[in-house]
Amino acid sequence: MDSIGVLITCPMSDYLEQQLQKRFNLFKLWTHTSDSDFLKNNSNSIQALVGNTKIGADAELIDSLPKLEIVSSYSVGLDKIDLRKCEEKGIRVTNTPDVLTDDVADAAIGLVLAVTRRVCECDRFVRSGLWKKCDFGLGTKFSGKSVGIVGLGRIGSAIAKRAQAFGCVISYYSRSEKPETNYKYYSSIIDLAANCHILFVACALTEETHHIVNREVIDALGPKGILINIGRGPHIDEPELVSALLEGRLGGAGLDVFENEPEVPEHLLVLENVVLLPHVGSDTVETSEAMADLVINNLEAHFLKKPLLTPVI
Ligand code: NAP
C-alpha cells in the first residue's frame, strides 16, 4: 500500500503519523509553506485524507483532491467534514466511535466534580499558601443531584451510567425517546434544563444543534444550575453563557470545548465558578492509540476492498 497517497491535515498523534508512514505514502499538509501550492503539485497523488476536530475535510479541500476516495476522521464528531459533498462525490467516510466513549464520559464527570467541589480553586488555594491564613470554604454536593443530558448517544449514555453511580436522577433530551432506558425523557430542552441541576451537553454538532443552549435554556437552568459541555463549542451561545455567569443567572460551568477554540472569552478566564479544559475529552494515551488504529484499519479495509469497520458513508 506504500504507493497510496494519504494526506493528514494537521498534527494529531505521533503514533498515528508513524503508523501511517509505515504503510502509506504520507503527506503532511502543515509541513508545506503554502497549502494551495502543495495541493496544485500533489493533488493527483492523494487518495485518502485523515482529518480531525481542528481541520477536517471541507468542500474546498475535497474539491481540490480529484482522486480522493476516503476520509478517515480521527474523531467521532463529523462536524468538520462536508458529508453532503462526500456523498455527492461517492467518497467514503469513517470516524472513531466507541473507543473514546469512556474517556469523554470520564472527562465530563471530572468537569462536574471540579466545578461542584471547586477542585481547581482548591488547588490554587493550596499552592498560593492561602491555606496557612484561612480555611477554603464550602463546595456543592454532586451526589444525588438531578442530571439532564442533551443527546443520549454513546457518550451521553456513558455519562448517565456514571452519574447514576453517584446516585443522580437522570433525564435527557434527544430527537427521539429511548424506551430501552428508564431515564425521564423531555421533548423540550428548556423543560429538561428547568428540571435539572446539572446539564451535560453531549449531542452531535449539526445545523439543528448549533446554539442549542441559548439564553432561554441557560435561564431555565438557573442560578444554581451547572452547565457541562463535552460536545462541541458551538452548541452553546457563548456570549449568552458569559453574561449569565457574570450576572449570576447561572451557577457555574465546566467546558472542554469552545465556540472559537483555542480562543476563549477573556471573562471566562477570571471566573472562579468555571473550569476550562483545552478540548481533551478523549486525549489519553490509550484512547489516542485506539483511535489511530481505527483510522488506519479503516483505510486498509478500504484499499483492500473489505468492509469498513466504522463507516459513516
Ligand atoms: P452519538 O452516539 O452519535 O450520539 C450523538 C447524540 O446526539 C445522539 O444521541 C443524538 O440523539 C443526539 N442528537 C443529534 N441531533 C440532535 C438534535 N437535533 N437534538 C438533540 N439531540 C441530538 O455520538 P457520541 O459518540 O455520543 O458523540 C457525541 C458527540 O460528542 C460527538 O458528535 C462529538 O461532537 C462530541 N465529542 C467530543 C469529544 C471531546 O473531546 N470533547 C470527544 C468525542 C466526541 P437522537 O438521535 O436521539 O436525537
TrEMBL record:
The entry's keywords: NAD, NADP, Oxidoreductase
EC annotation from Swiss-Prot or TrEMBL: 1.1.1.79
The keyword NAD is annotated on this UniProt entry: yes
Signal peptide: none
Pfam families: 2-Hacid_dh, 2-Hacid_dh_C
A molecular function GO annotation: NAD binding
InterPro entries cross-referenced by the UniProt entry: D-isomer_2-hydroxyacid_DH (IPR050223), D-isomer_2_OHA_DH_cat_dom (IPR006139), D-isomer_DH_CS1 (IPR029752), D-isomer_DH_NAD-bd (IPR006140), NAD(P)-bd_dom_sf (IPR036291)
Domain spans labelled D-isomer specific 2-hydroxyacid dehydrogenase catalytic: 6-312
One cellular component (GO) term of this entry: cytosol
Boundaries of every D-isomer specific 2-hydroxyacid dehydrogenase NAD-binding domain copy: 109-281
Biological process, per Gene Ontology: photorespiration
UniProt similarity note: Belongs to the D-isomer specific 2-hydroxyacid dehydrogenase family.
Protein name: glyoxylate reductase (NADP(+))
